[in-house]
Amino acid sequence: MKFEILCKDKKARNGRLYFNKGIVVETPVFMPIGTYGVIKGLTPEEIYSTGSSLILSNALHLFLKPGINVIKKHGGLHNFMHWKYPILTDSGGFQVFSLSNISLKRNNGIIFKNPFNGQKFLFTPQQSINIQYDLQSDIVMCFDECPKYPITWDQANLSTRKSLSWAIQSRLQFDIKKNTNALFGIIHGSIFKDLRDFSIKNLIKIGFDGYALGGLAVGEPKSKLYDLIDHICLQIPKNYPRYLMGAGKPKDLIESVSKGIDMFDCVLPTRNARNGYLFTTNGIVRIKNSQYKNDDTVLDTKCYCYTCVNYSKSYLHHLYLCNETLGLRLNTLHNLCYYQNLMLNIRNAIKNKQFETFKHNFYLQNK
């Protein structure tokens, strides 16, 4: 993978990620999350129709179900799920944070209890890289520990140094496997700038194809989040992609782009869609509300997704109350289209040197 910056508007960047087989993805880019190699309710063709060309799956979850041997028989995750475009795989480190009830941290890895059969196993940086190699993902994430918030400086220091040690091991194992895809390092340090500086400095020495901001959007105040993004982006080498992990509210995307972030992922658009929480250019629509029972207008007149072209809010309201699978599918299609349209508009605004105007107008429409 190669990265090229095409143009800038102040700190906001428009670029391209060049992948194997000639596939190009423009940045800033939002990656929908298909944890188990699937975005619930949608076919790969439907995912691509929303404008999504880079998705995220999780190495640890796929290791647990269906198991790596199953995916290897198909020649990798792309063939297994019939997805022709790039895939980024999360290393499994975030599960230290999200599955803390079934995990136990160790210096050489994480001891997990398999939630499906109760068996305990040690998950190491080497194993994470090997699994991602077998998945044949286009962007591999180094193994890390995502600390909770709030956290003390001493706790964050120990966690940061552990993640750095695992980053070194991940780099070595990645090279041993002769992996020709990309490996991203993950910057840690919680809310402490000195620890973030320490992490960045040492990750750059190790050398990665891109740098992710980890351990953010986990409960810290927004002002602290944005300040840290700005601080960290200034220190990442400018010709490398910058990836903010797990932040997904539209305002977060726009604010982060304004500080130099190129890549995003989040479950927000798909999870909210299944809960009837829909994003539109006129604000949020909670489709379960009774006000939509007789509303024969479309969800968003500025959206040209399959849902908005063919169905009314009244019908979507009906499907939601009936708990119909079709409603979940249509909602998911729309929310992904909304996010991809948002990213397209962001890219165009940067190209036209109009990003600040775009940002101002967005906030006026979404008070």
Automatic annotation (TrEMBL):
Residue numbers spanned by region RNA binding: 270-274
Keywords carried by this UniProt record: Glycosyltransferase, Metal-binding, Queuosine biosynthesis, Transferase, tRNA processing, Zinc
Record note on cofactor: Binds 1 zinc ion per subunit.
Protein's GO biological process: tRNA queuosine(34) biosynthetic process
Reaction catalysis annotation: 7-aminomethyl-7-carbaguanine + guanosine(34) in tRNA = 7-aminomethyl-7-carbaguanosine(34) in tRNA + guanine
Binding positions for Zn(2+) per the UniProt entry: 303, 305, 308, 334
Active site: 90 (proton acceptor), 265 (nucleophile)
GO cellular component: cytosol
GO molecular-function terms, A-Z: metal ion binding; tRNA-guanosine(34) queuine transglycosylase activity
EC number: 2.4.2.29
Class of the enzyme per the UniProt entry, highest EC level: transferase
Cofactor(s), names only, from the UniProt record: Zn(2+)
Subunit record text: Homodimer. Within each dimer, one monomer is responsible for RNA recognition and catalysis, while the other monomer binds to the replacement base PreQ1.
NCBIfam families noted in UniProt: Q_tRNA_tgt (TIGR00430), tgt_general (TIGR00449)
Function: Catalyzes the base-exchange of a guanine (G) residue with the queuine precursor 7-aminomethyl-7-deazaguanine (PreQ1) at position 34 (anticodon wobble position) in tRNAs with GU(N) anticodons (tRNA-Asp, -Asn, -His and -Tyr). Catalysis occurs through a double-displacement mechanism. The nucleophile active site attacks the C1' of nucleotide 34 to detach the guanine base from the RNA, forming a covalent enzyme-RNA intermediate. The proton acceptor active site deprotonates the incoming PreQ1, allowing a nucleophilic attack on the C1' of the ribose to form the product.
Protein name stated in the entry: Queuine tRNA-ribosyltransferase
